[in-house]
Specification:
seven-stranded parallel sheet, 8 helices, alpha/beta, 275 residues, two-stranded antiparallel ribbon, Rossmann fold
């Protein structure tokens, strides 16, 4: 299947988990992919997987919150792969605390990765998108491009212990609806996925203090206590958490030609869970 043949997709945070599955899904349908991970090895591994499938990919690894990253990310699509058609703002992690225990650093870190980084990527993409849209219009072509922002049910409904994460993900919804109005004239569909319980390393069942990730030298606890995760799973009408592949399927829907007249939408992907 190649309904994305010739399209160039940028997927942030695509070295592992949901992002990896998104990158592979788009590649299997013909897209050329700019892969990104905080660490070099996972990002390069996904590039290698895509090439093994017969696809085309390059990596722009590093921290999406760092100055200059957005410009390098967009430039890779334009200069190395020859275009810019799909942008998936997926990179992120959780760093949880209740409000009275949360530090300024924690709160700002969540805003930086989930909101400021997508803003910078969109700002860097604005002129290439405008230029490409102008070329299409002059040639009499109607070409639709796609932006998919990744939010969360926590952004829609809040979640105790995640005030910074929830605030950032809620802000991304306003960001999506505004960009939809600004970029509609360029034939860009801008939509948002709000994930529920998806089974990744961030939501794995763990015993206390067992699982951590390293983010810019910070050791951050991840995972959910087994009893709490079991409770969440029982709340899901479909009876279980989603897989990363199922999460990627939802993103893919917003990248296809079938979504050309859908924009500014926020779709909950949580197996029916509405908190």
């Amino acid at each position: 299947m190649s309904n994305l043949a010739g399209k160039v997709a940028l997927v942030s945070g695509s070295g592992r988990g949901i992002g990896r599955c998104i990158a592979l899904k788009l590649a299997r349908h013909g897209a050329k992919v700019v892969v990104n991970d905080l660490d070099e090895a996972p990002g390069q591994a996904v590039v290698d997987e895509i090439k093994a499938l017969g696809g085309e990919a390059v990596a722009v690894n590093g921290d999406v919150t760092k100055a200059g990253f957005a410009e390098s990310f967009v430039a890779a699509g334009m200069e190395k792969l020859g275009g810019l058609d799909i942008i998936v703002n997926n990179a992120g992690y959780t760093w949880d605390s209740t409000v009275q225990k949360m530090t300024d650093e924690q709160f700002q870190a969540m805003l930086d990765v989930h909101l400021v980084a997508p803003f910078r990527i969109m700002r860097a993409a604005a002129e290439p998108i405008r230029m490409l849209a102008k070329q299409d219009a002059e040639a009499g072509r109607e070409v639709f491009r796609k932006v998919v922002n990744i939010s969360s049910l926590a952004g829609l409904y809040g979640n105790a212990g995640q005030i910074s994460y929830s605030a950032a993900k809620a802000s991304l919804i306003g960001f999506t609806r505004t960009l939809c109005k600004e970029w509609g004239r360029y034939k860009v569909n801008v939509n948002c996925i709000a994930f529920g319980l998806i089974n990744t390393r961030l939501t794995q069942a763990i015993e206390a203090s067992q699982a951590t990730i390293d983010v810019a030298g910070r050791e951050i606890k991840v995972g959910i206590q087994p009893q709490l995760k079991s409770t969440f799973e029982k709340m899901v009408p479909l009876g279980r958490g989603g897989t990363p592949e199922e999460a990627a399927d939802a993103v893919y829907l917003f990248c296809t030609p079938e979504s050309n007249y859908i924009s500014g939408q926020i779709v909950a992907v949580g197996g029916g869970l509405l908190m």
